[in-house]
Amino acid sequence: MKAWISTTLVAVVVLAAIPTVQAKPLSRIIAEMGLTPADFEVVNSAADAMLSGATPRVGEESSWVNEATGSKGTIRVRDVRDNCVHLQHFIRPEGSDQTREVRTRRCRDAGGNWILTP
Predict the structure, then answer these.
(1) Which helix (H) or strand (E) segment is 7 a member of?
(2) Mean pLDDT of the chain
(3) Closest by Cα among 48, 31, 47 to 93
(4) What is the DSSP code (8-state) at residue 117?
(5) Distance CA 60, CA 65 (A)
(6) Is 7 within a domain?
(7) CA-based Rg of the chain, rounded to a whole angstrom?
(8) Is 60 a member of any domain?
(9) Alpha carbon of 50 to those of 23, 29, 42, 79, 95: distances in Å?
């Protein structure tokens, strides 16, 4: 009986750890793209501004530039469904000649706020 409980406990701990190992924290994703925390704040502000009015429409775009670092990009509404907006970010970090693409999703909570969701 004790061995069965120990085995079950180990299995639960291992299964619980799997998503942690597979998921990258947002800070790591940002750093791997070559963005600074200040760049992310500019991106986040641009996305917030896109979502501040009525529900955005597919194809809407907003450009952003961080004058302090030189990073820049564009945010495009890729899809709107189920009270969620799927955004496509085209980002060119300072010093890079290559544009990178990231997709995010924000969903409205009960209070009407747009929350970044997985």
Answers:
(1) helix 2-22
(2) 81
(3) 31
(4) E
(5) 17
(6) no
(7) 19
(8) yes
(9) 27, 22, 13, 14, 27
Strand 61-65 and strand 72-81: the pairing is antiparallel
Q: Which domain holds residue 102?
A: 24-117
Query: In this structure, how many other beta carbons lie within 10 angstroms of the beta carbon of residue 71?
Result: 24
Give the count of domains, the chain. 1
14 domain-assigned: no
| CB-neighbour burial class of residue 87 (10 A; exposed 0-12, middle 13-18, buried 19+) | buried
pTM of the prediction? 0.73
53 has pLDDT over 90: no
Hey, what amino acid is at 8?
T
74-110: pLDDT as tens digits:
999 999 998 899 999 999 998 888 999 989 999 999 9
Q: What is the pLDDT of residue 22?
A: 56
Q: Tokens 């194809």 sit at which residue?
A: 59
How far is the CA of 34 from the CAs of 12, 68, 80, in angstroms?
A: 36, 14, 28
Q: Is the dihedral of CA 73, 35, 113, 107 positive or negative?
A: positive
- The confidence score (pLDDT) of residue 4 equals 41
